[in-house]
Design brief:
globular; disordered N terminus; about 0% strand; mainly alpha
Length: about 300
């Protein structure tokens, strides 16, 4: 009995470490994206291709078969979620280019708030007082991140925030669509969503600027491989392997390692400025969103 309990605890600890590591890796994404001289759409396409190749190879090696009957039943939702995922990446990469990584990331992490507001409409879930408080305070935090003067002045910083919020809307769309996909779960679903993203992004890239891999420098190639294979392929495998072993509350708490690492990277590595009001706004967004997720986990 004691050995069995110890084995379960070790398994849970390993899952927490894997999820923490994957979140920390996600938080460093911007450093590599900044060094890839490709348009956001083209970068999103190659990210999906590399990740799909790696995860497809993993599924083959582990002999995990896809549920074709389930895929047929969920085909439309898989296609829509894949499209939303691909364009979510495009907008996030654009946000990195127009504003600081910390502001782009904090804007992007408004997605759970959007899910909270839309869930009562789409899934007839009751909106509690706690959720209303979380929505209001997270919105206040978003206003602080944007800054009243920046909101009035506009410019590239505000454009970057709009891209970040657009990415948040699409990320929320992926979350909401995934709540409706019941026959396919975990890494199989993500693999199919990557394939759907590729199908849509190929014609999009062809029509909006074309393909420019041939002229990319060695640093760009290296960063692209890291983003596609490591940040997406390997890390998604780690993420889903850990996720199935943890409770919703544990997963939601550990997921906030991602934005925290991104903010630290922005300030300490990229030497980007962050004001006290933006920091306070980020704390409000992340803090109240986490409080809401802990209550619903």
């Amino acid at each position: 009995m004691g050995a069995e309990l110890k084995g379960t605890m070790n398994h849970s600890l390993r899952a927490r470490l894997m999820l923490s590591a994957s979140m920390a890796i996600f938080g460093t994404l911007s450093v590599f994206v900044r060094n890839i001289p490709l348009a956001s759409g083209e970068l999103a396409l190659y990210r999906a291709v590399l990740a799909a190749l790696l995860i497809g190879g993993y599924l083959l090696l582990t002999r995990q078969k896809l549920d074709l009957a389930g895929i047929r039943r969920e085909l439309l939702l898989l296609l829509l979620s894949g499209v939303a995922m691909g364009f979510n990446w495009i907008l996030l990469f654009q946000a990195y280019r127009y504003t600081t990584v910390s502001v782009a990331t904090l804007s992007y992490y408004f997605a759970p708030v959007i899910v909270t507001v839309l869930s009562p409409v789409l899934f007839h879930e009751k909106l509690s007082r706690r959720q209303i408080v979380c929505f209001v305070m997270s919105t206040v935090g978003l206003v602080l991140v944007i800054g009243v003067t920046d909101l009035a002045r506009g410019g590239s910083h505000f454009t970057g925030i709009l891209f970040g919020l657009g990415a948040a809307v699409l990320y929320a769309t992926v979350i909401l669509l995934n709540k409706s996909i019941r026959n396919i779960s975990g890494i199989h679903r993500t693999f199919l969503q990557f394939l759907a993203a590729i199908l849509v992004l190929i014609p999009y890239v062809a029509c909006t600027g074309g393909f420019h891999l041939a002229g990319m420098p060695a640093l760009g190639w290296g960063c692209l491989l890291v983003v596609g294979l490591f940040h997406t392929g390997v890390t998604y495998c780690m993420y889903f392997s850990a996720l199935k072993e943890l409770s919703g509350q544990e997963a939601s708490i550990l997921s906030y390692i991602d934005p925290l690492v991104a903010v630290v990277i922005s300030v300490l590595v990229l030497h980007e400025p962050i004001t006290a009001s933006q920091l306070a706004g980020g704390i409000l967004i992340l803090g109240f969103t986490l409080w809401n997720e802990r209550a619903s986990a």
